[in-house]
From TrEMBL:
Keywords recorded for this protein, A-Z: Cell membrane, Cytoplasm, Endosome, Golgi apparatus, Lipid transport, Lipid-binding, Membrane, Nucleus, Transport
Family recorded in the similarity comment: Belongs to the GLTP family.
Protein name (database record): Ceramide-1-phosphate transfer protein
InterPro entries in alphabetical order: GLTP_sf, Glycolipid_transfer_prot_dom
Pfam families registered for this protein in UniProt: GLTP
GO molecular function: ceramide 1-phosphate binding; ceramide 1-phosphate transfer activity
GO biological process: negative regulation of autophagy; negative regulation of interleukin-1 beta production; negative regulation of NLRP3 inflammasome complex assembly
Native species: Chrysemys picta bellii
Entry annotated with the keyword Cytoplasm: yes
C-alpha cells in the first residue's frame, strides 16, 4: 500500500466537494482541486496500472493551481470568476488550441467531464448489488460519459485498467470509511453535493457556449 494510505479516507474527498458551492451558488476552485487531489491519492492506492490516469489528472490540477498561485489568483477564486476573466481578456482558445492551450476554462472542463463520470460511477457503486463487479460499473459509466471525449487508444487503455479493479465490497472498504454499508451511507450523503457542483458548472459552461472547448 502507498505511504500514508492507512490514514487516507475518501470521506475527506467528499467533504471537499461539499464545501465547493458558495452561498451565491458559485463553485469555489480550491475545495474543488482539494477534492481532485484526494481522488488522485485514492487512485494511486489502487495500483500503478492507473498511473496514466492520475498523471493526467495531476497535470490538470497543477495548471489550475498555478493560476491560483499567480498574480491573478483572485480571478480564479471561483469557476464563475475564472470564466468571466478569461473570456473578457481573450484568454480562451475557442476554435482550436493555439495561443492559450492551457486556459483555465478548457482545463477545468476536462475535470468537469470527469466529475460527471465520477458522479455516475459512485452512484452505480452505491446502488449496486453486494457481489457486483466494480469493473463493470466503471466501464459502463465511463462509456456513457467520458469515453465520448477520448480517442480509441485511451479508451482501450482505460478498459484494460478497469479490469484490475477489485469487487464492489473490497472497493468500498478501500475507501476507508468503515464497513461497506457505512461507505454506501456516506456516498448517499455526499453525492447530492457532487451533483450540485456538476450542475452549476454545466449550466455556466452551457450559458457561455464553452462545453466543446478544444
Ligand atoms: C476507480 C477507477 C478509476 C477509473 C478512472 C476513469 C476515468 C478514465 C480516464 C482516462 C483518462 C486517461 C488519460 C488522459 C486523458 C486526456 O486525454 C483527457 C483529455 O485531456 P486533453 O487531452 O484534452 O488535455 N483527460 C481527461 O479526460 C481527464 C481525466 C481525469 C480522470 C481522473 C479520474 C480520477 C478517478 C478517481 C477515482 C476514484
Amino acid at each position: 500500500m502507498a505511504a500514508g494510505a492507512e490514514t487516507f479516507s475518501l470521506r475527506e474527498v467528499l467533504v471537499a466537494f461539499t464545501a465547493c458551492v458558495s452561498e451565491q451558488r458559485e463553485v469555489r476552485v480550491d475545495p474543488y482541486l482539494a477534492g481532485w487531489k484526494g481522488l488522485v491519492r485514492f487512485l494511486n492506492c489502487l495500483g500503478t496500472i492507473f498511473s496514466f490516469i492520475s498523471k493526467d489528472a495531476v497535470t490538470k490540477i497543477e495548471i489550475i493551481e498555478n493560476y491560483r498561485n499567480s498574480d491573478q489568483r483572485e480571478k480564479y477564486l471561483t469557476v464563475q470568476s475564472m470564466v468571466e476573466y478569461e473570456l473578457a481578456n481573450g484568454l480562451v482558445d475557442l476554435q482550436q488550441r493555439s495561443k492559450h492551450p492551457n486556459s483555465g476554462c478548457r482545463t477545468f472542463l476536462r475535470l468537469h467531464r470527469a466529475l460527471h463520470w465520477l458522479q455516475m460511477f459512485l452512484e452505480g457503486l452505491r446502488t449496486g448489488e453486494d457481489n457486483s463487479k466494480t469493473s463493470v460499473i466503471c466501464s459502463e459509466t465511463y462509456n456513457a460519459s467520458l469515453a465520448n471525449y477520448h480517442p480509441w487508444i485511451i479508451r482501450k487503455a482505460a478498459g484494460v485498467a478497469f479490469c484490475a479493479l477489485p469487487t464492489r465490497n473490497t472497493f468500498l472498504e478501500t475507501m476507508n470509511v468503515g464497513t461497506a454499508e457505512e461507505a454506501v451511507t456516506m456516498l448517499g450523503d455526499a453525492l447530492p453535493y457532487i451533483c450540485e457542483v456538476y450542475k452549476i458548472t454545466e449550466e455556466l459552461y452551457a450559458q457561455h457556449k464553452l462545453l466543446d472547448l478544444p
